[in-house]
Design goal:
Its main location: cytoplasm. This protein has about 375 residues and is α/β, with parallel strands linked by helices. It contains 10 helices and 16 strands. Helix 1 packs parallel to helix 3 and helix 2 runs antiparallel to helix 3. The structure holds 5-S-methyl-1-O-phosphono-5-thio-D-ribulose.
Length: about 375
């Protein structure tokens, strides 16, 4: 059964609540842009493409369920709501990219209020469909690149965070490449980093890997270097992207930067999987990418279902427990930047970007 993280039908939207996974699969209704803003901020939905699509569709539902006096009132309403949605999370570019495209579209659409609303809804719905197709193409391109670069003997892959069906409209980017390599019979084993502090790896990627019967093992973030040293069958690290700067510097989940360094030390290919909507050609280098700081509670507390003395998980009772010394200061940047110099390839739905003889990516040609 395909994992459905975003349930959309015209006039209604619900998302699989990622705060309750992996122990409970509960759909959370999103009726308007305020619901979407809160769901993104609270990480009920997360992952760069997913937050863009949920924001776009939430506004589509709100528009479909509201009466407007004129086309200009719709345009103003859409502009204000998109500006508000963009402030929910700053690092991923997909959300502001989607907002810019949708705002341009309503401003350029002529006709009455209903015509402008219909144009917005059609464009938002297309983003949902396009993202799944783009991810499948990223998977296909990543598989071909791996065969060409690594070879056709089975190999293992390491990944971080969650970049799968839960982080996108479906299939996934980095996890999509793992899915494609597994589907081709080339995957020996997938290793998932736990991804502290928010545990997207242990909660969400592990859930998707188990769901798809992909042979996989969970490790803590601090085990990555020794894993590469002791498991030479790992030939590739594949990560997602929240924003790829013009020069290829890539912002992604905190911990990605250190993976790019250990990959170089161990001669393992370091690959970024990103739809072209994650490329921000206006931002020249990673220095220009705003890194979201998140609240200290993510480090000092953990939430999950209670485990009884026999090791049985009680799905009914979730608790938050405090795990750090009270009073300790906390630094919690949610993302870091892997430098282009340490990236071997950026796999998009349109093809794979590699550096030229001067060590430079040319991402403009993919837009
Ligand atoms: O804080 P998150 O969970 O939204 O961070 C997600 C990531 O860093 C992903 O790797 C990235 O958004 C790519 S998802 C296809």
């Amino acid at each position: 059964m395909v994992l459905e993280a975003i349930r959309y039908t015209p006039h209604s939207l619900a998302i699989l609540d990622q705060l309750r996974l992996p122990h409970e699969s509960v759909y959370f209704p999103i009726k308007n842009s305020v619901d979407a803003f809160n769901a993104i901020k609270s990480m009920t939905v997360r992952g760069a493409p997913a937050i863009a699509i949920v924001a776009a569709l939430a506004l589509a539902v709100e528009l479909a369920n509201t009466e407007f006096e004129s086309a200009d009132v719709v345009r103003e309403f859409v502009g204000n709501k998109l500006k508000y949605l963009v402030t929910s999370r700053p690092t991923a570019v997909n959300l502001s990219d989607a907002a810019r495209k949708l705002e341009n579209l309503v401003n350029e659409t002529e006709g009455d209020a209903k015509t402008v609303v219909r144009a917005y809804i059609a464009a938002a719905e297309k983003m949902l469909v396009d993202d799944v197709n783009d991810n499948k193409n990223i998977g296909k391109n990543g598989l071909e690149w791996a065969k060409k670069t690594i070879g056709t003997d089975k190999f293992s892959i390491l990944t971080i965070c969650n970049t799968g069906s839960l982080a996108t409209a479906g299939y996934g980017t980095a996890l999509g490449i793992i899915r494609s390599i597994h589907g081709d019979g080339l995957l020996s084993h997938a290793y998932a980093l736990e991804t502290r502090p928010y545990n997207q790896g242990s909660r969400l990627t592990a859930y998707e890997l188990v769901h798809d019967n992909i042979p996989a093992t969970l490790i803590t973030d601090s085990m990555a270097s020794v894993l590469l040293k002791t498991h030479p069958e790992i030939k590739m690290i594949v990560v997602g992207a929240d924003r790829v700067a013009q020069n290829g510097d890539t912002a992604n989940k905190i911990g990605t930067y250190q993976l790019s360094i250990v990959a170089k030390h161990h001669g393992v290919k370091f690959v970024v999987a990103a739809p072209t909507t994650s490329i921000d050609i206006q931002t020249k280098t990673g220095e220009g990418i705003a890194i979201e700081q998140r609240k200290p509670e993510e480090l000092v507390t953990v939430r999950g279902p209670v485990v009884d003395k026999h090791g049985k998980v009680d799905k009914e009772e979730a608790k938050t427990v405090h795990i750090a010394a009270p009073g300790i200061g906390v630094w919690n940047p949610s993302f870091d930047v892997a430098p282009a110099a340490l990236i071997d390839a950026i796999v998009t739905e349109k093809g794979v970007a590699e550096k030229d003889q001067n060590g430079e990516f040319h991402l403009e040609s993919f837009l």
